[in-house]
Specification:
InterPro entries: SAM-dependent_MTases_sf, TPR-like_helical_dom_sf, TPR_rpt. The protein is of the alpha/beta class and 456 residues long. It is built from 21 helices and 11 strands. The model is unreliable at 1-5 and 11-18 (pLDDT under 50).
Length: 456
C-alpha cells in the first residue's frame, strides 16, 4: 500500500476542511505538531496512522520519541524497537534509541544502539562522525579512555572540522590529566569556529582548573570583548577576575547555560554518573520524614533534568518542579514523575506560593546565589507549618571569614556560619548541617554542605 493511496482520518474539522489526509501528509503534520510541542494532537495523528498501517516505521519511531518526551520512556523504547523490527536498516531510529538509553544512564544499551547505527552508515559520512563522537562520550563516562580517544579521533579523521569532537577530545585529555593536549584541542576548536563559545569556555575552565586564574580571566576578557552581551563570557569573567561580581547568577546566564546543558547528552551522562547531590538530599529526607506514603506536597526547587524526581516521588501526593531553563524542564518531563513543572525564577516563585509545600528540596541550585537570606527567607514562608527544607551548597572554609564567594568555576561557595544565619533569620529550625562531597570535578572532590531545616 503506498502513501498516496492511504487515507488517515483527521479530527473533527469545519465543513470546508478535508476530513482525510494522505499517510505522508498525516506524518508530516504530526512531526510538525511534535516539534511545536502540541503533543496531544501529534500523538492522536500518529496513532491514527498506525490504526491504518500498524507497523508503519516512521509513525512508530516518532511516536516512540514523543512518548519518551512525555515521560513514558519504556513505551517509547518499545515503539522504536517495533519500528526497527519493521525496518531493520533504520539508522535514525537506532540513533534516537541510543539517545533515550543514554539519557536514562543505560550505557550498554546505548552503546549497542549507536554501534548498530554506525554499522549501517557510510563510513565517511557526517552521520558517521557524529556517531563516533557519541560513542566516544559513552566510553569516556565509563573511563574507557583508549576507546573514547579512538572514537573521537575517528570522528576527526572523517571530519577534521568537527568542533564537538575537538572539544570532547579536549575534555578527555583533561580528565586524564593531560592539560597541554586539552588546551591544544580547545584552541583548534576556536580556530575552526571563532564564534564557538564552548571552546572558549572549556579553555578558560582548563586554565582555572590548574590554578592559572589570571590566564582564565584573560580568555574570558577577550571573549567578552568580542561578544559584550554574551551571558557566559560576562559571568565567567566576573568569576575569574573579581570585577563586577553579581549578587547572584543572572537569569540569562542560567537559561543559556542550562538550555545548552539539556541539549548535550554528554553533559547529562556526566551529571547522572558523577553527581551525588540528589542521592544525598533523598537520604536526608529519609532520615527526617516519615516513611514514604505518597501524601506530601513536594517542590523540587531548581529541578534541572529531574534527577531528584524519581528519588522523592514515593513521598509525594503532588510533585512539582521549578526551573529557569525550558530545556531542563523538557528533560524533567521525560522522568514521568512530576505533576507540575514551572518555568520561573526561584525566589519570585517561592514568594508567590506561601504556605504551600510540605517539602522543598534544592540540589545544587543555591550555588548560583550569593547572599542566601532572600531565597531562604522566601522558602521558609513557602513551607507549610511543620514543612521541611533540604538543600545543598558548595562549601567555603569558615577560616576565610567570608559568608560566601563567587569561585572561578562560576558558582558560589558558602560558609557554614552564613547558612546558620540565614536559616535562623528565615524562622526555621536547623536540623542538619553536614559536610559532604557533592561530586568530582577535574578529578578533585567538590566539598559541600547538606542542610535540613524545618518550619515551626
Amino acid at each position: 500500500m503506498t502513501a498516496a493511496s492511504t487515507a488517515v482520518p483527521t479530527a473533527t474539522q469545519p465543513p470546508d476542511t478535508p476530513t482525510e489526509l494522505s499517510l505522508t501528509d498525516a506524518l508530516r503534520m504530526a512531526i510538525e505538531m511534535q516539534r511545536e510541542r502540541l503533543f496531544d494532537g501529534a500523538e492522536t495523528l500518529y496513532r491514527r496512522v498506525l490504526a491504518v498501517v500498524p507497523e508503519q516505521p516512521d509513525a512508530l519511531h516518532f511516536l516512540g520519541m514523543l512518548l519518551h518526551q512525555r515521560g513514558r520512556s519504556d513505551e517509547g523504547i518499545a515503539h522504536i524497537e517495533r519500528a526497527l523490527a519493521a525496518e531493520p536498516a533504520y539508522v535514525g531510529a537506532y540513533n534516537n534509541l541510543g539517545n533515550i538509553h543514554a539519557s536514562r544512564g543505560e550505557i550498554g544499551n546505548a552503546l549497542l544502539a549507536y554501534q548498530r547505527a554506525l554499522a549501517l552508515t557510510p563510513a565517511d559520512s557526517a552521520e558517521a562522525a557524529d556517531l563516533h563522537n557519541n560513542l566516544g562520550a559513552l566510553h569516556k563516562v565509563q573511563r574507557r579512555w583508549a576507546a573514547a580517544q579512538s572514537h573521537y579521533e575517528q570522528a576527526l579523521a572523517i571530519d577534521p572540522r568537527h568542533v564537538n569532537a575537538h572539544n570532547n577530545l579536549g575534555l578527555l585529555h583533561a580528565a586524564r590529566g593531560d592539560l597541554a593536549s586539552a588546551i591544544r584541542c580547545y584552541c583548534q576548536a576556536i580556530e575552526l569556529m571563532p564564534g564557538n563559545s564552548e571552546g572558549r569556555k572549556l579553555l578558560g575552565i582548563t586554565y582555572y582548573t590548574v590554578g592559572k586564574i589570571a590566564e582564565a580571566a584573560e580568555v574570558f576578557r577577550q571573549w567578552l570583548a568580542d561578544e559584550p552581551d554574551h551571558p557566559v563570557a560576562r559571568h565567567m569573567y566576573a568569576s575569574c577576575s573579581g570585577i563586577h561580581t553579581p549578587e547572584r547568577a543572572a537569569d540569562n546566564y542560567v537559561e543559556y547555560t542550562f538550555d545548552r546543558f539539556a541539549a548535550s547528552f554528554e553533559q547529562q551522562l556526566n551529571e547522572r554518573l558523577n553527581y551525588q547531590a540528589p542521592q544525598l538530599c533523598a537520604a536526608l529526607l529519609q532520615r527526617r520524614l516519615p516513611p514514604p506514603a505518597a501524601e506530601l506536597v513536594v517542590l523540587d526547587a531548581g529541578c534541572g533534568t529531574g534527577l531528584c524526581g524519581p528519588l522523592v516521588a514515593p513521598w509525594a501526593r503532588t510533585l512539582a518542579g521549578v526551573d529557569l531553563s525550558r530545556g531542563m524542564l523538557d528533560q524533567a518531563q521525560t522522568k514521568g514523575v512530576y505533576q507540575d513543572l514551572y518555568k520561573a525564577e526561584l525566589t519570585e516563585f517561592l514568594r508567590l506560593s506561601p504556605d504551600q509545600w510540605d517539602v522543598i528540596l534544592s540540589a545544587d541550585t543555591l550555588c548560583y546565589f550569593g547572599d542566601l537570606h532572600e531565597v531562604i527567607g522566601a522558602a521558609g514562608r513557602s513551607l507549610r507549618p511543620g514543612g521541611t527544607l533540604v538543600f545543598t551548597v558548595e562549601a567555603l572554609p569558615d577560616a576565610l571569614d567570608r559568608p560566601f564567594r563567587l569561585e572561578p568555576h562560576g558558582r558560589y561557595a558558602h560558609a557554614s556560619g552564613h547558612l546558620r544565619a540565614v536559616v535562623e533569620q528565615a524562622g526555621l529550625g536547623l536540623l542538619d548541617l553536614d559536610a559532604v562531597v557533592l561530586r568530582e570535578e577535574g578529578g578533585q572532590p567538590v566539598h559541600g554542605w547538606l542542610v535540613a531545616a524545618r518550619r515551626g
